[in-house]
Each structure stands twice: as structure tokens, then as C-alpha cells.
Design goal:
This protein is an alpha/beta fold. It has one domain: Alpha-Beta Barrel (TIM Barrel). It has 12 helices and 10 strands. The strands form 2 sheets. The protein has an 8-stranded parallel beta barrel, surrounded by 10 helices. It has a two-stranded antiparallel ribbon with strand order 6-7. The model has no long low-confidence stretch (mean pLDDT about 95). It binds 3-hydroxy-3-methylglutaryl-coenzyme A and magnesium ion. Magnesium ion binds near residues 18, 208 and 210.
Length: about 300
């Protein structure tokens, strides 16, 4: 008996955004630019570059405009995050053509993260998405706390599916469905993603796992079984949301690529070059890189 596996998987690299946003020390802008360039060189052609959020809330992302000015690549999908109209206006003043909006299923989390209720965020974002689509932007919706919330606990599948439906009806191209605090178990990942796959055949469906309890790879395997072929991950396993206590990094890109390639699934990502990309940013980080692949292959660990 064989597992049900695709021939090819797309990795969306979120290291420059999710990976760095939780770093306390400011990573110099030129280092972020080199990091992005070397991740692309490793084959990561879909990437979240930065986010247009309030620099008072997330100082690390205060150089978003400078990053975008130098890091757009025609051959790649260059995604930037924006939570509100002000963020979208800042995106409009750049040449970027792919935007991720974000919202939490959990109202308590959304209030902590965006200072609005989930309903108010959805009401603000719907006309924004419509306008982005009229202007031919690629639009991704990141759905946080899709499984568990640090404040409310377990989130019902029905609530997550209902919120996803609002964004699909608003016209997004992609849903990135997130286990923000890394608490989902593989059976939960399989169950939710199977239902999302059946409900929303017309959108790109992406899974975004944080690896807090080291279940990221198991959840990816379970999601593959549910038919998911797109995964967010972060170089070095960096990441976490500053407003989700207890959340740690995303599942590490190099560990995901290693697992998939060993299973005969093509990712287009070069692992030696991944290690080189991590080396660029590592000296500027306040914590060690703990991914299995990096620890076995880097010269400097
Ligand atoms: P607020 O304080 O309620 O904002 O924050 P406001 O509308 O009252 O405005 C206050 C000030 O902020 C004003 O400036 C605005 O102009 C400015 P002032 O007049 O005081 O000088 N402002 C902005 N400046 C720059 N860019 C903007 C912006 N908006 C307002 N976009 C706000 C509301 C949404 C701004 C704030 O809560 C915020 O920035 N939140 C972002 C938090 C964040 O970045 N979280 C991490 C990303 S989400 C995530 O990591 C989850 C994900 O990975 C999936 C998963 O794992 O779950 C995607
Ligand atoms: Mg995240």
C-alpha cells in the first residue's frame, strides 16, 4: 500500500515576514534584503517579504517600504501583508502585486493582534479585497487561530470554515489556514483540510503550521493525505506572532523540503542553498536555529 502523495508541492517561504517579526533585535534592512535574495536563489519563488503593519506594534517590520522597493522579482510571487486600509494604501504606493490580508477566527486573538473584532476586520477587508481584485492583485487571506486560540482554546471547525467562506466569497485567490500556536494534531489537520478542500475547490489552499509542539511535519503529512499541495514554512524554523503567547516558529522550510524530497515529491528547493540563506540572517538573531537539517549540515553550529 502506498500513501496518497502528489508529484510536486509548492512551498511558500514566510521567513522574511513571520520568521523575523518575532525577533526582538532589529535585523538590519540590508541583511533582510540579502536573506530574501538568497532564499529565492534556493528556489523559493513564492515568498512573504514583509508586512505593512503599524511600526509601533511591530517595529521589526518598520522597513517594509524599503524592502519592497528593492526585493520585487518578476519571476516570483512577492507577497506583502496588510491588515487594514492604511496598510493597503502603503502597498498601493509600491509596485508589489500580491497582498495577504489576515484575520483570526478567534475574536479574542483578533482583538489582541489587530485591535478589532473579527467581524469588524471582515467588514473592513471585504471591499478592500474587491478593489484589489479589480486592480488585478493576487490576494491571499491568512486565517489565524484556525484550530486553537491562546485565549479561547479549541476553535470549532465550523467557525473556521465559515470565516474561510467569507473570504472565498469576497474573491480571494488563496486561503492560508494557520495553526497559529502549533497545537493541532494530525487527525485535526486531516479533518479540517479535507473539509476545506471539498468546500472550496476554486481557491488555492495552503497550510500554515507553527511547530511549537514539533507536530509540523506530521501535520504536513496528514494534510498531504487531505489533498493539500501548498505549505507555508520558514527558513530555520523562525517565526511566531508577537500577539499569540506561547507560539513559536513555523515549521522549518529545510526540514519540510528534506521530508518531501525523501518521499519523492518535487519542491524545486536546493537544500545547500537553504543553509547558505540561513547563515546570512543567523548572526542577527537572538535565538539558535534548531531545525534538524540545519543542525546536521551547517558548518558553524
Ligand atoms: P491601532 O492602534 O488600532 O490603529 O492598530 P489605528 O487605526 O487606531 O491607528 C493608530 C496609528 O497607527 C495611526 O498613526 C495610524 O496611521 C497607524 P498615528 O496617527 O498615531 O501616527 N497605522 C498604521 N501605520 C502603518 N501601517 C498600518 C497602520 N495602520 C494604522 N497598516 C493595527 C491597528 C492593525 C495597525 C495594529 O494592530 C497592527 O499593526 N497590527 C499588526 C499585528 C501584526 O503584525 N501581527 C503579526 C502578523 S499576523 C500573524 O503573524 C499570523 C499569521 O502568520 C498566520 C498565523 O500564524 O496565525 C499570518
Ligand atoms: Mg504565522
Amino acid at each position: 500500500m502506498m500513501l496518497n502523495l502528489p508529484k510536486k508541492v509548492t512551498i511558500i517561504e514566510v521567513g522574511p515576514r513571520d520568521g523575523l517579526q518575532n525577533e526582538k533585535l532589529f535585523v538590519p534592512t540590508n541583511i533582510k534584503k540579502q536573506f530574501i535574495a538568497s532564499l529565492r536563489d534556493a528556489g523559493l519563488l513564492e515568498m512573504e517579504l514583509t508586512s505593512f503593519v503599524s511600526p509601533k506594534w511591530v517595529p521589526q517590520m518598520g522597513d517594509a517600504a524599503e524592502i519592497v522597493a528593492d526585493c520585487l522579482d518578476e519571476k516570483a510571487r512577492n507577497i506583502v501583508l496588510a491588515p487594514n486600509q492604511k496598510g493597503i494604501d502603503r502597498v498601493y504606493s509600491t509596485d508589489c502585486n500580491a497582498v495577504a490580508v489576515f484575520v483570526g477566527v478567534s475574536n479574542s486573538f483578533n482583538l489582541k493582534n489587530i485591535n478589532k473584532t473579527t467581524n469588524d476586520s471582515v467588514a473592513e477587508l471585504k471591499p478592500i479585497i474587491q478593489e484589489l481584485k479589480e486592480k488585478n492583485y493576487f490576494v491571499r487571506a491568512c486565517i489565524s487561530t484556525s484550530f486553537y486560540c491562546p485565549y479561547e482554546g479549541k476553535i470549532s471547525e465550523n467557525d473556521t470554515i465559515a470565516l474561510c467562506r467569507e473570504f472565498v466569497e469576497a474573491g480571494v485567490d488563496e486561503l492560508s489556514v494557520a495553526d497559529t500556536i502549533g497545537m493541532a494534531a494530525p487527525n485535526e489537520a486531516y479533518s479540517l483540510f479535507s473539509q476545506l478542500k471539498a468546500e472550496f475547490p476554486g481557491v488555492l489552499l495552503t497550510a500554515h503550521f507553527h511547530d511549537t509542539r514539533k507536530l509540523g511535519l506530521a501535520n504536513i503529512l496528514a494534510s498531504l493525505q487531505a489533498g493539500i499541495e501548498r505549505f507555508d514554512s520558514s527558513a530555520g524554523g523562525l517565526g511566531g506572532c508577537p500577539f499569540a503567547p506561547g507560539a513559536s516558529g513555523n515549521v522549518a522550510t529545510e526540514d519540510v523540503v528534506y521530508m518531501l524530497e525523501r518521499m519523492g515529491i518535487e519542491t524545486g528547493v536546493n537544500l545547500d542553498k537553504m543553509v547558505d540563506a540561513i547563515e546570512i540572517v543567523r548572526p542577527h538573531l537572538s535565538r539558535p536555529i534548531e531545525s534538524g537539517y540545519y543542525r546536521l549540515h551547517a558548518q558553524t553550529v
